[in-house]
Amino acid sequence: MQIPLFPLHTVLAPGIALPLHVFEERYRLMVRRCLDASAPFGVVLIREGSEVAPRDGTAQELAIAGVGTFAEIREASKHADGRWDVLAVGTSRFLVREVLTDLEPYLVAEVDPYPDEPADATDEETEELAGRVTRRFVDYLRLLQPRDGETAEPIDVQMEVETEEEEDDGGPAARDASLLESDARPVPVDDPEAARVALRIPDEPSALSYLLTGIVQVEPDRKQALLEAASADERLRDLDALLDRELLLLGARLAPFAVDRRGLAGTGN
After folding, report:
1. Closest to 78 in 3D by CA, of 23, 3, 36
2. Phi first, then psi: what are they for 165, rounded to 5°?
3. According to CATH, where is 2.30.130.40 located in the chain?
4. Which residues are CB-contacts of 263 (< 8 A; sequence separation ≥ 6)?
5. Which of 138, 139, 195, 253 has its CA 20 to 30 A from that of 267?
6. Distance between CA atoms of 194 and 127, rounded to whole angstroms?
7. pTM
8. pLDDT tens for residues 80-92?
9. Three-state secondary structure call for residue 99
10. For residues 219-241, b (16+ Cβ closer than 10 Å) or e, as one string?
């Protein structure tokens, strides 16, 4: 299948919302066409180059990742001068087969859907792994909170979650998708289960793995590697190792060591 591409210096994971301010004429056209056709576009990470075309019209060297995410437009508002403010949500992954540069002003790609492979672990092993990663993620958010005298930007992420409306008789009705804003603060740090519920961290391994991929604050190349993982349990194992590293670094940053001078030569008691 063919889809328009929007190369960016960011990684979009399924289930995560992406706000965009679209000002280039070629991407204004892309947004208009996607809205008219109720069709997605593809978000891919830029490996080298820029998403903005050179002003002098010269050819642009652009290297993109081979795996991206379908993005569906949930909200769009157009400015008087033609610019767009768009809120798109990642839905699923795709594999780039061929990039076509001469069909439209924007890039078009031949892509194949790229679903997660079946887990290579037992259900019990995956459940244990998901539980450990969730606990580490709550610890990670806790350590991101500023202490006295520190300042830190909250994690500004929106995710799409399913909500369940109630019928008149109090029973469940149809599920609907809504956007939830996630913030690194405050986190109920004394109760991991309360933190999990407050943050709406999903239990399902694939949804969990993509949510954490979208939220964890690491370099784009590390995020891209998580996105490209073959299966949810592989992604969770990679997140487990990554969070182990991040917790170590954050712990060192937030709890600086003190020198015990009693062991230094020439110092007094």
Report:
1. 23
2. -80, 160
3. 2-113
4. none
5. 253
6. 19
7. 0.78
8. 999 999 999 999 9
9. strand
10. eeeebbbbbbbebbbbbbbbbbe
